[in-house]
Amino acid sequence: MSLPPPETTRQQRRPTMKDVAAAAGVSLKTVSRVVNGEANVNDERRTAVLEAVAKLGFRRNASARDLRQGRSGTVGLLLEDVADPFYSILSRAVEEVARDHRTMVFAGSSAEDSARERELALAFCERRVDGLIVVPAGASHSYLLPEMQAGIPVVFVDRPPGDIEADMVLTDNAGGTRRAVEHLLSFGHRRIGFIGDAPQIYTAGERLHGYRQALESAGIDFDDDLVTQEVPSAAATADALDRLLEAPSPATALLCGNSRTTVSVLRELAQREIRLALVGFDDVELGDLLQPGLTVVAQDPGAMGAAAAHLLFQRITGAAVGPTQTVTIGTRLIPRGSGELPPA
C-alpha cells in the first residue's frame, strides 16, 4: 500500500473527542468518561466509543490532562553520557520507577560540559517537567534555584551539586578504594599505583582520598610518583604506566579509578605483556572472562538510579518534606584473579 504524498499528510489533523462522539453517536461527555476509564457508562455505548476510537485512530492528549491536574507526567534525567554502560543502567532504573508513577523520562547527555548541562536542564524545565535528576557536570547549580523555588524538585546523583542544598544519591567512593587497597596490601603489595580521572571531578577526588586513607592506615607513606589523575586516554595511560613501571622502585599493583581507565590499562598491558596485579573501580563487561578474571570494586548504578527516582517522586507527591536527604550506596569488592597476584 502506497503512502499519501507529504503535502496531504501535513494537512491531516488528529481526530478529536468530538469526532469520536459523532462517529459513535454519543455525547462528548460519554466519550470523555470512556477514554478516561470511568465506570458509569453502559456497555453498548462503551463499545460504540471504543470502536470509533479504533477506527479513527484517536489518542487522548495526556499532556493537557496532566497539566490540568498540575503535573506534566514527565521528569528530566541529565547524565554525563547516555551511552556509558554505568549511566545506561542508572537510566533504566529511573525509567522503571517512573513507569510505576505513570511518568515519562526525558534524558540528555551533558558530556561533562556545565554550559550544556544548564541548557538541557532549563530546556526540560521549560517543558514543565515535574522534577529533575542530575549528574552534575560543574560546581555551580545556582541557576536551578528559581526552578526549585517554583516547586520543581531536583535530586543530584553520583556527585553533589556544590553550591546549593538539594537531595543527593552518592556512591561510597572512598570506602570502595580503601577496600581495594587493603585487598592488594593483603597480598603483599606495598607499591600500589593509582590512575584516576581528572582531579576536579568529585568522584575522582573521593577515590584518591580512600586510596590515601588505606595507605596511611597501613603505615605506608603516600607517594605522588605513584599517582596519575587526568582524563582517560590511550596516550595518558601509556605515559602513566611508563612512569609507574620504569621507576627505581616500580609499582607492583595498580588501582584504576574508573572503568574507562581500566579498559585503557588492560589494552596497554596486553601490548607490553606485563603481569601486574590490577583492581578496577567499576565493573567491566566481560571482565569475568579475562585470564585472569578482572578484580573490581563494583558500584550499583541500578540502586543509585532507583534511589534517586524514589526520592524524587517522594518530593513530587509530597510524601517527603523537610530537610534535604543524602543516600549513600555501598560498593562491593569482586575478586576474580587479577587483584590476587602477589608482587613479581
UniProtKB/TrEMBL annotation:
InterPro entries: HTH_LacI, LacI/GalR-like_sensor, Lambda_DNA-bd_dom_sf, Peripla_BP_I. GO terms for molecular function: DNA-binding transcription factor activity; transcription cis-regulatory region binding. Keywords: DNA-binding, Transcription, Transcription regulation. Residues 15-69 form the HTH lacI-type domain. PROSITE patterns: HTH_LACI_1, HTH_LACI_2. Pfam families: LacI, Peripla_BP_3. It comes from the Bacteria. This is LacI family transcriptional regulator. It comes from Nocardioides albertanoniae.
